Amino acid sequence: MTILLLGLILFLGTHSVRIVAEPWRQRQLARQGEAAWKGVISLLSLLGFGLIIWGFGLARQEPVQLWQPPVFLRHLSALFMLAFFVLLAAAYVPRNRIKAAVHHLMVLGTKLWAFGHLLANGMLADVVLFGAFLLWAVLDFRAARQRDRAAGTTYPAGTLGGTLATLAVGLLAFVVFAFWLHGVLIGVRPFA
């Protein structure tokens, strides 16, 4: 569990600088330059992500079950995952109405991903992993919305074509991941 916790601290810590220390971040960007700053943050994030994967794998070898989730929560989690993939697609597909209305789609999607996985899994390692991501996503989403309000940020209106493309890409990504990649990469087949 220690390696998982170190990975979470490193990964989520690097992603939390804007939440807790935006003025310091701005000074570092000005001093180091954007490329150097992003390079350091990327390396630390990758190291943290690697530790999360390793630590979670180790924690799963000695599972500590906190509760046994009912089957219907797995189905509810699947709905959250469908929404997650649509939000993820909306973050990248240009000119869609979802991005125009909601903003900060990856962070919002992370909230759904983490919450859905918390519902469907009752092991200690799951609670630590998904609980940490959920807490981070809630705080980051709030901070991002506050930055938008302070800056008077506006988002371009979406189009029907962009929105339909977003829904199609999100649905396709969900199907591929849920029915194939989740089993290959994670070792769990949600619909088996």
UniProtKB/TrEMBL annotation:
Keyword Transferase belongs to the record: no
Annotated TM spans: 40-59, 71-93, 113-139, 160-181
InterPro entries membership: NnrU_dom
Transmembrane helix recorded as keyword: yes
Swiss-Prot/TrEMBL keywords: Membrane, Transmembrane, Transmembrane helix
Subcellular location(s) of the protein: Membrane
Domain NnrU intervals: 3-190
GO terms under cellular component: membrane
Membrane topology: Multi-pass membrane protein
Annotated Pfam families: NnrU (PF07298)
Protein name: Uncharacterized membrane protein
